[in-house]
Amino acid sequence: MHHLRDQDLKKEFVSHAPGYWANSGVTDEEWSNHTWQLKNRITSLSGLEEHLNLSEEERNGVILSGSKLAMAITPHFFNLIDRDDPDCPIRRQIIPRVEETLVSDYEMADPCGEDSHMPVPGLVHRYPDRVLFLVTDRCAAYCRYCTRSRVVSGAGEQELDTDFEAAFQYLEEHTEVRDVLLSGGDPLLFSDAKLEKILSRLHKIEHIEFIRIGSRVPIFLPQRITPQLCEMLAKYHPFFMSVHVNHPRELTTEVKEGLERLANHGIPLGNQSVFLRGVNDDLDTMKTLVHKLLMSRVRPYYLYQLDLIQGSSHLQAPVSKGIEIIEGLRGHTTGYAIPQFVIDAPGGGGKVPINPDYVLQKNDERTVIRNFEGKTFEYPEPAVRPDPVLDY
Ligand SMILES: *Cc1c(COP(=O)(O)O)cnc(C)c1O
Question: For the chain, what is the domain count?
């Protein structure tokens, strides 16, 4: 019944194209064109129902999404949905549900307190030496748990009102900023020329040492990762990219090719996963994911506890489960494969690392630790060690 679930843990890279579009007459050339992919996104209830039987919760969710966070799904990503699996981990990320309209006291429209850390519209300056630059409010597809759903997609009441000139001026004046992270929305939805205008302007600022982009385009729209784009990005080294993969099925052959192309242009790649109930809240899925990421030349960077975004209760998994998964990875697999689990502190405290406890006891004399197998060890502080003696 659940064909794809059986494949998910096999660490194989498969293409799902043309999938649902098999009988639509689309040519290979059209399929691999990112403009075609964007034009043919699923954005309406009728478009969705041509391919999938929806539950009542999904149907109502789609209808209500029009006034909150719009629905949009690229054909490439839509093909990862298993129509026979009502709990499909891809489906849960991308198809609206009526639960998105449920709001608890703890949930917020701006869970990371970004709006109150903007010296200039669109520029979030929370940490001493780096900024988050929100350059667009549009994405190739919309994640239902988006932490910026208050401003993203154009459907909600609030608008992202980025003032580019004021932002560049702020960055020129603030010599303590050495790192600029472009995000949004998704910066890779801009044309090469428009994106290059921003990158070249930032690159000219002497104290900016490091530029990076956060993007889910390599996953939602791998056709956009063209040789021309990569060549343009490589002009702005040291340039890094953070992508966003949550589930091993998202790493298809097309996605892997795009990631390899970026890596071949000298762009170091990190992955930021969001910890989601029913998507990646189990050790086997996460282990497969991080292994497939390394095979795609991507280093797992962060695993985010889901922000307290309004309407996200159906996707929330407990912090204790996240810690358990990190514990299940550390020591048991490659160190490069292990992301840092973080909570972005509610209200605007920034990212805080959350780790399993390996330190059992610590005082001025010694640190008592346990390893991944549960064995206990002691490390004496230099001050309590006996003086070394000559040994010859
Ligand atoms: C995540 C984030 C950054 C970048 O943080 P790193 O830990 O350096 O990746 C910068 N600014 C804001 C506001 C952020 O949320």
Answer: 1
Taking the C-alpha atoms of residue 278 and residue 264, their distance in angstroms, rounded to an integer, is 34
Instruction: Find the domain containing 26 and state its range.
Output: 1-359
- DSSP alpha helices (H): ranges in 223-278? 227-233, 253-264
CATH code, domain carrying 136: 3.20.20.70
CA of 132 to the centre of ligand 1 (A): 7
Strand order in the sheet with 359-362: 359-362, 366-370, 376-380
Domain presence at residue 368 = no
Mean pLDDT, residues 74-91 taken together: 97
* pLDDT (tens digit per residue) in 214-239: 999 999 999 999 999 999 999 999 99
Identify whether 51 is part of a domain: yes
- What's the pTM? 0.97
> How many CB atoms lie under 10 A from the CB of residue 16?
20
Token digits for 306? Answer: 């889901």
Tell me how far the alpha carbon of residue 179 lies from the centroid of ligand 1, in angstroms.
10
For residue range 48-60, what is the model confidence (pLDDT) as tens digits? 999 999 999 999 9
- Rounded to 5°, angle at Cα 214 from 212 and 215: 130
How far does the centroid of ligand 1 lie from the alpha carbon of residue 130, in Å? 7
pLDDT at residue 16 above 70?
A: yes
Q: Would 375 be classed as within a structural domain? A: no
Q: Could you tell me which residues are beta bridge partners of residue 350?
A: 345
Q: Is 183 helix (H, G, I), strand (E, B) or coil?
A: strand
* Pocket of ligand 1, beta carbon within 6 A: 124, 126-127, 130, 132, 181, 351
Test site for ligand 1: of 116, 130, 244, most ligand atoms within 8 A of the Cβ: 130
Per-residue tokens: 212: 């990076």
The answer to the question of residue 241 being in a domain is yes
Q: How confident is the model at residue 6 (pLDDT cuts 50, 70, 90)?
A: confident
Look up tokens 């170091």; give the residue.
268
